[in-house]
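Appendix B. One record, verbatim.
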Amino acid sequence: MKKIIRICCWLFIATTLNAQTFSTEKKQDAQGYTYEVVKNDPTGVRVYTLANGLKVYLAQNTDEPRIQTYIPVRTGSNNDPADNTGLAHYLEHMVFKGTSKIGTQNWETERKLIAQISDLYEQHKAETDPEKKKALYKKIDEVSQEASKYSVANEYDKLISSLGAKGTNAHTSLNETVYKNNIPSNELEKWMIVEKERFSELVLRLFHTELEAVYEEFNRSQDNDGRLVNFELMSALFPDTPYGQQTTIGKSEHLKNPSMVAIHNYFNTYYVPNNMAIVLVGDLDFDKTIKKVDQYFGTFKYKELPMKKLVTEKPMTSIVTREVKSPTAERLTMAWRTSGVGTKEAMMADMLSEILSNNGDVGLIDLNINQKQLALNAGAFASVFNDYGYLGMTLSTREGQTLEEGRDLLLAQLDKIKKGEFDDWMLQATINNMKLNRMRTFESGDGLATSLYRVFIQGRSWEQNLAEINEYAEITKADIVKFANDFCKDNYVIVYKRKGVNDKLVRVSNPKITPVQLNRDAQSEFYKDFAMLTTTELAPVFVDYKKEIQSKKVKNTNISFVKNNTNTISSVYFVFNMGSDHDKKLQLAAGLLDYLGTDKMSAEDVKKEFYKIGISTGVNVTNDMTYISLTGLENNLPKGIALLEEVLRTIKPDQEVYNTQVAAILNNRENAKKRKESILNALVNYAKYGKESRFRDILSEKELREMKVNELTDLIKSVTQYQHQIFFYGNDLKPIVNALEKHHNLAANKAIPAPKVYPEPETANKVYFANYDMVQAEMTRVAKGDKYNTALAGTVNVFNSYFGSGLSSIVFQEIRESKSLAYSARANYGMANDKNLHDYMTVSIGTQANKLPEAVDAISALLADMPKIEKQFNNAKESSLKQIASSRIIKSNIFFSMLNAKKLGFDYDIRKDTYKSIQNLTLNSTNEFFTQEVKTKQYNTAIIGKKETLDFEALKKLGQLEEVTLEEIFNY
C-alpha cells in the first residue's frame, strides 16, 4: 500500500512540474525594436540588443511600484593586469566618485590637479627608494587636499538616494563587475539620466582616501579565514590562470602602488556597451522602457574588445595539499576542478553534489555524517565560473577528531556513489526541488534580475538557462555512477584549516593622510539641474490587515489566511507566543527534531519522506516566539501536515543520540570562543546587557549532561497543546483546514507559561576589551535609550539615513571618505521591537589597529556634535518618503507585519504614522532628537583586537577600561 501511495505521489509531482520545451522567438514592437522571448517562459523576459551591442533584459513584476536594476559589466579580476591586481575591484569603488559633471564644483581646475596626482602615482609606482616613496606620497596627499576643495563628496549617492533608491551597491568577482540599485518605478528615467552620465567617463576623484579604504577591506579579508581558505583552494586548483593566481581584492604591494593610468586603460577597454547590459525587472512598461534605454544608453560607442588570451589549466593528476592556520576551529575543504558553466561536466558535478548534500538533508553526507553526528557539520557543493568550476566538499571536525579522519569520512561517501549505493528516487526528487527553487527565485524581482545578469556574464542565452533543467532531467543513476568513477580520482585539492598562528598576515604602517574636504553644502551644476526635474509622485499604500488577512476560528485555534496570487508554492505556519524566555529547553528540544525518529520511522526516513513530496520544514525558536513551518507545492501540504503531526506526536527518545548532540553543542561553544565574529557578538552583548543577559543565561554543561532525553521529547509532544495560531499563505484554505481538523490539535488551550524578564541596565561609559590575534580592531559603542515611542519612528527613519547609514551619511563621509579610517563605519538608532523594551543607539567601526586613536576621536566628535547640512537632510527626508511611498507589504509578509505591529501595541500598518511624521520633520527637530537621544547618552564600548597593537590610552578616553575573559562574556 505504501508503495502505491509513493507512486501516486511521484505521478502528481511529475504532472505538476512537467518538462517544458523552450525555444527562442524573435518579435518586434510597434516602435520597431526587435527583441527575443522564450516560448513557455513563465517570466515573460524580453531580451533586446541595441545597435551599439548593449544587451537589455526587461521583465515585469507588479508586486510593488519599484524596479530592480543591475548594470553588469562582463569583466572582473581575471582581467586585472598581472602587476596591478585588485584593479577591477578598485575601479568598481571609483565608479561611485562621479564624472566631469557629477561631483565637481570646478572641473577645469580639479581636472588639472587630478592629472598631477596621476603623474605622481606613476612616479610613486616606479620609485624603489622607500624614503623617496614616502616623500612622493606626502606630495600626493598635499595635491589631493587641494583637489578636494573642488569636489563634492558622494554626490552620486546623493543623486541616486534622492530617487528613493535602496540597496545601492556593487560587487566585483572573477568575471564580473555588477552595479545595483532598487528604485521607485516613477523615477526610472531619472535613474537613466544619472547612470548614463556615470558610465560615460571615469574620473578618479578622491583617489588616495578611497585606496586606503580598499586597503582596509584587504585587512578585513586577512581576518576572515573563510577567504584565506578560498584563496589557497583557488590557487591550488588553478595554478596557471588568473582564476587562482589573482585574487579579486589584489596583492598588498599592488594596492599600495596603484596606477591611475592603468585604471583608466581598463575602464576604456572593458566598460563599453558591447560588454555591458541593462537589467530591469519590476513595474515597467516594455515599449516605453526600451525606448528610454535606447535614448540614454544607445549613444555609447561600440568598441572592439581585446582578443582574449587563452590560457588553459593542465589536467590534475595528483592530490595537492595546502594548509591555512588561524585561531579558529579546524576544518577542511576539498575540490575537483571541472569545466565551465553550461558544460555536461559542470552539470554532472552539480548533480553529484546534490546526491551528496542537499537542502532536504537527505544526501549521503547529510545522512551518513551529519545525521549520525560523526562531524560537527559537513556538506558538498558545486561552484561554476565562465571557464572552469569545481566540485567541493567541506567538513568541520569534532573535538578529538583529526582532519585526516574527516577527509576519509567525505571520501567514503563519494565511494558509495561510485558503487551506486544511493536511492533511485533521489534523482527525480532533486530535479523537482531544482524546479521548486527556480519558482521561488523567479517569484521576486531581485531573484529574476539576478538570474538575468548572471546569464549575461556567462555569455549564455535565456533559453539555455531555462532549458538546462531538461538536460539535468536526462541524467540517470548510471550516468552519475560512471561520472563519479571517471572524474573523482586522486586528482583533487585539499586545504586543511588548522588551528594556529597565521604567520602570513601583512601589517603595514598607517600612512599620513590629511582629511580631504567634503564640501557637504556644495552641489555640481548637474545636481542643480537634476533637482529641477519632476516626476509624477507615487501615493503610499498602507496595508489593511483586516481586509488582506482572512481569519476563522476552528475550535480554540485562530487560522489566518493570505492568498497567494503568484504561484502554487504555499506555506503553513504554527505560531506560538512562547520561546526560550518561557523555557530554556525549548531550543534544545527543537534542535533534536533533526536527529530523532518516530515509533515507525527513523530520522533519516522522516527527512526522505518530506524530500520526496517537495516539502521543506522549519522550526525557529526566538526569545519570545516559536514558529513551526511547512513550505512546498500546495497540493502536497496536507501530506506534509499529516507527516509533521505524526513526527511531533510519536517522536522517539534516544539518549545516545542526545548525548552525542550535547557533545556537539559543547564543541560548538568552544569553537565560538575561537571565532572573531562570535567573540565580538558576545562582547557587544556584554557591553549592552551586562552579566544578567539572555545571551549568558544558558543551560550549563552540567545541566546538559544530566538531562534525560525524555524531558525534551515530552516537551516536543506537548507543544501543540499550548495556545497558538495558524497562518496559511496559499490559494485554497479549505483543504488545509480539512487536513488540520484531521491531524492537528485545534482545541489546544494550555496556557503559555510566564517568561523570564531580563534587565536592561544603564550604559555607563565602560569599555570592555577582548584580546584576539587580528590585523584590524573592531569597535562598537552602544547607548541605552528610552522605551519604544512611536512618535519617534519618522525622525529615526530619516536620522539613520542622514547620520549613520548609506554612502552619503555623515558618519560614512567623515570616517571613510574624508579621513580614510575604515572600510566599514555606520551608526544606527535601533527602535525596540516591543513596546515594553528600550531603544539602543549603536556605532560600529572596523579599522587598522594603528588608526584606532584617530577613529576614537572622530567617532567621539560626531557623537558630540551632529553636522547640520540642510540640503543633505532634505535629501534624506525625500528619500525616506519615496521609499515608503513605493514599498508594499505583500504576500506572507502581511501576516508577519501584523504580528510585529501587535507587539508594539498597534492593529494597523504603523508606516502610516511614520510617513506623516516625516512629512513635517525639520533639521532642527532632528537635531533636538540627536541632542536628547544620542549626544547626552552614556555609551558602553566593546572592542576586539590584538593587545600588542592597540593604544589603550586612546581607549581610556571612552571610559573605564576592563579587559574581559572569554569565560566572562560567554558564561562558559
